[in-house]
């Protein structure tokens, strides 16, 4: 998305999240207990590590596995780093979890804003993410068209 301007997958993920939100909301309203997790630095740190890792490794968890089995030797190093990192996290989790996750509040929008308010806030955040993606897409292609026009001598 950031490099090529292709935002189809990001839009699809947001639309999928919107569809799943109403499904999960209906289950919670029927009495199924919601699984609420901590909102702490763990989310930001994990997201950044995942983002950088997936770019540097050239793929996701499943991707490095099948590429390594295909014989792409550089993915063996990715796998080794993945195993070492996961092992270290599991080893030290009891020591670092209070600072990163478990001592932070669990955020439940349904409790904070009420059932319909929580659903509305969820959809407003998804709409904001969707609009940011559409804005990025338009900005990317506007800059790309200006760059093409500058090289060909045309004005946009």
UniProtKB/TrEMBL annotation:
The keyword Zinc-finger appears for this protein: no
Domain of life: Bacteria
Alphabetical UniProt keywords: Membrane, Transmembrane, Transmembrane helix
Keyword Cytoplasm: no
InterPro entries, per database record: Sulf_transp_TsuA/YedE
Coiled-coil segments on the chain, per record: none
Pfam short name (any one): Sulf_transp
TM regions (residue ranges): 12-32, 44-66, 73-93, 113-136
Protein name: Putative inner membrane protein
Protein source organism: Cedecea neteri
Gene: yedE_2
């Amino acid at each position: 998305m950031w490099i090529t301007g292709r935002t189809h997958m990001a839009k699809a993920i947001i639309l999928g999240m919107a569809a799943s939100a109403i499904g999960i909301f209906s289950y919670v309203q029927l009495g199924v207990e919601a699984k609420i997790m901590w909102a702490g630095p763990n989310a930001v740190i994990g997201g950044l590590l995942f983002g950088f890792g997936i770019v540097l490794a050239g793929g996701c968890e499943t991707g490095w596995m099948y590429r390594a089995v295909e014989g792409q030797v550089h993915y063996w190093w990715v796998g080794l780093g993945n195993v070492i990192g996961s092992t270290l996290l599991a080893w030290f989790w009891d020591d670092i979890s209070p600072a990163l996750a478990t001592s932070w509040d669990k955020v439940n929008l349904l409790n904070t804003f009420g059932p319909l308010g929580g659903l509305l806030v969820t959809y407003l955040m998804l709409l904001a993410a969707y609009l940011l993606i559409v804005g990025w897409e338009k900005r990317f292609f506007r800059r790309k068209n200006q760059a093409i026009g500058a090289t060909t001598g045309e004005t946009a």
